[in-house]
Amino acid sequence: MGVVGDVEHDGLRDGGRASRLRPVYQVGIRAVNFVLRTFAPRGEPRAFIRREIPERRRDAPIFKVQTMDDVYERLPRAAAPLGQMIGAFAILSLLLASIGRIYGLLAYRRPEIPARIA
Fold first, then answer.
1. Structural domain tally of the chain?
2. In a domain, 48, yes or no
3. How remote is the C-alpha of 62 from its chain's centroid?
4. pLDDT digits (tens, 9 = 90+) for 26-39
5. Mapping DSSP to helix (H, G, I), strand (E, B) and coil, where does residue 17 land?
6. Domain region containing 94
7. pLDDT surpasses 80 at 68
8. Backbone φ/ψ region at 11: left (φ over 0), alpha (ψ -120 to 50), beta
């Protein structure tokens, strides 16, 4: 049993939640995710994991090895199309509101405009 800080299980936007660690064999889970904290240069942890894990356990599958930099690089791209769409609708709504405002002013003051011009 171990105690760790809040872990962001479901992504960085949801915030962390309290976690506890238990031995894998007690839980009965077949798939396990590992998070390693290292101060090694970029790329070295990947090579280390791919080299060392098979030496310890040959039947352990290794896939989707990624650094936190890789995870952070994907985050803005996932939210960018939604932000662009919201921005486009905001610009469209401002345009329609300004057109409606101008039309309303002209329709209300239409009889007055020739008198003011004269």
1. 1
2. no
3. 24
4. 766 666 777 777 77
5. strand
6. 79-118
7. no
8. left
